[in-house]
Amino acid sequence: MARTEYYDDPNAPKPNSMVVAASAVVTDDHGRILLQRRRDNDLWALPGGGMDLTDSLPGTAVREVKEETGLDVEITGLVGTYTDPKHIIAYTDGEVRRQFNVCFTARITGGQLAISDESTELRFVSPEEIEQLPMHHTQQLRLQHFLEHREKPYLG
Known about the structure:
Distance between the termini: 28 Å
Radius of gyration: 15 Å
Number of strands: 10
Structural class: alpha+beta
CATH superfamily: Nucleoside Triphosphate Pyrophosphohydrolase
Number of helices: 2
CATH architecture: Alpha-Beta Complex
Shape: globular
CATH topology: Nucleoside Triphosphate Pyrophosphohydrolase
């Protein structure tokens, strides 16, 4: 299923769902950040996804990282909350979602890096390489906030 992301676009379709989601900035021992190239829109993004009714938000981030990358992680902190109503995601099945994302930091505790059916590529990227990758600006914002080493999480 393909998806189209809109931001502050008057032609964006109206949302018909709100999805609570979690993402994670996973770093390796060299300070590189784990990114995935999404199959549904061909853009680079942090691993993450929607919360199940049986999940906690941190648990969602841990589960999604495992499902999408094969890595086991533990949550180490909070980058911020991302609830901008201008960000709309439309799927080819008719769902048009407004997303509520909580972005965590995480460290690797095990597992084996493996591409899932949601991605075409996984890569640890140095902070300097991020600007060169095709990425939605909402993902860039989360990474920018992480790289700023903020004293307090972003609340937006």
